[in-house]
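Q: I'm writing up a methods section and want to include an example of the input and output format. Could you take the sequence below and give the corresponding predicted structure tokens, formatted cleanly so I can copy it straight into the document?
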Amino acid sequence: MNRITKKEALTILKNSDLLGLGEWADGIRKDLHPEKIVTFVVDRNINYTNICINKCTFCAFWRDKKDRDAYVLNKDELFKKIEETIALGGTQILMQGGLHPDFDIGYYIDLLKAIKARFNINVHGFSPPEICYIADRSDLTIKETLNILRAAGLDSIPGGGAEILSDRVREILSPKKIKSSSWLKVMENAHMLGMRTTATMMFGSVEKPEDIIEHLDAIRNLQDKTGGFTAFIPWTFQPGNTELVKKRSAFSVQRSAKNSSLVTRHSSLHPATAVEYLRVLALSRLYLDNVENIQASWVTQGLKIAEVALRFGANDFGSTMIEENVVASTGISYSVSMEDIIRAIKNAGFKAAQRDTYYNILKKF
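A: Here is the clean output for your methods example:
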């Protein structure tokens, strides 16, 4: 089958019948994963600090150093979280945090070595904005930084910080955060060193359909070059408690006082609907023909929509996520057990299997 072009993808995103699109994506999923297995990983999100200099408008998690609820986890707290994860059958920790103004590479080397000295667990950590910040603070190149962190114990890199890989959108959402080219550079360098990473996309904020296509195209092009992405994870912007929704709401009120007809759905930033989520998910499966795994997002969509996503191209249910703080800070908090995930997978007509970071099957249910 010929590859879908950017122009074709835009037409599909805007105009396709939802159920027809889902059936198409489901067919591709069947071709790629004929064994009818849907995987998940047992892990924990550990946010080692919420102190961050970027202060992204879409994020409700960040704090200033002076804020009363600002924190940095100490090692005892960190080790306890990892011990609990392993006791629950966890094989991975997803470790991310804010860009702390006082941390250079020495902090991260010490952190990684301390973890690896005590635990046999995969450290899936430090998204591209963190890697770039560590490099800048330590006067190192991206490649040098990755080599040093890898030697200290970093195993793989999450796709956080991508949001939408369009600098026009990034200027609105996170003007202090790295540009699209820097995010892609970190991932390319990691792949060239033999590290595996995931790719993400946060949509449903201020982007246009064209921006979504640009994002998917950037991921596909890099995957053509390196083959280093294990999975793609699209998820929806959650507006609660964020600076972006506060600013947009104020803007909306000002406009409505002058001309009520100017107030739009986009101004008030309602989160993307389940239908919009499923449409983007299915398109991702069609467009990213070189990325083996597409992950459903129960964290933002809830268990039932994630179950439906398994018939819209997704073949992975993500993580049990023993702990999650970033999305929860927006006021959206879904909690599921391993049993919930297994039940949802079976309800959708699939066999459930626990995997590791690299999609090796560990156990079937």
